Recover the amino acids of this structure.
């Protein structure tokens, strides 16, 4: 069976959508793949409890326990490699990864970003889209490269920006699309492997 490892830092809503899709669409039988582990850099991440409730192995690799980013990434890589993943999926993982880490998983490392890349890389994407007067916003699934939010675009989902939108209302609408597009991209990539 091909394994997926999901990295999270918070509530794990994208992780939950991926797990739900994998069960609903029977990835384990149809694609011979499943979520092997959910790893967080924060012990308090709500997504860990969600994964455990689904019977998925979880682990915490606390970035604060390491003196350097390289040391953290080495420990994280060891935890991931123990699962022999076909894909490593960042789902709200709020750490910038070192070039060595990214190179190790080249072609297998995915992220979802809450903007229509290449616009609005980094943080505060919804507020920036509203300030710029954009008429649409959305989410992008992309391959992770050493340059933040610049990897190959695999899919995008577009939502309109409505009169009266706030960063919070826009974020909620974009998140519903993230939950749809990310599992679809993962399934498509697994079919090609």
């Amino acid at each position: 069976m091909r394994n997926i490892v999901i990295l999270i830092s918070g509530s794990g809503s994208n992780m939950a959508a991926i797990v739900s899709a994998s069960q609903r669409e029977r990835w384990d039988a149809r694609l011979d793949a499943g979520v092997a582990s959910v790893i967080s850099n924060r012990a308090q991440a709500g997504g860990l409890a969600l994964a455990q409730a689904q019977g998925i192995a979880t682990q915490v690799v606390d970035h604060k326990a390491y003196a350097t980013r390289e040391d953290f990434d080495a420990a994280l890589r060891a935890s991931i490699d123990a699962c022999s993943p076909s894909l490593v999926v960042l789902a709200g993982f709020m750490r910038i990864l070192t070039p060595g880490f990214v190179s190790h998983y080249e072609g297998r490392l995915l992220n979802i970003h809450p903007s229509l890349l290449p616009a609005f890389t980094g943080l505060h994407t919804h507020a920036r889209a509203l300030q710029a007067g954009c008429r649409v916003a959305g989410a992008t699934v992309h391959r992770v490269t050493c340059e933040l939010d610049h990897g190959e675009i695999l899919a995008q989902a577009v939502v309109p920006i409505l009169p009266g939108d706030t960063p919070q209302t826009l974020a909620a609408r974009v998140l519903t699309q993230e939950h749809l597009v990310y599992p679809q991209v993962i399934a498509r990539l697994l079919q090609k492997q």
Summary: The beta strands are 2-8, 33-40, 57-60, 85-90, 109-113, 136-143, 153-160. The radius of gyration is 16 Å. The helical segments are 13-24, 27-30, 46-53, 69-81, 99-104, 125-131, 167-192.
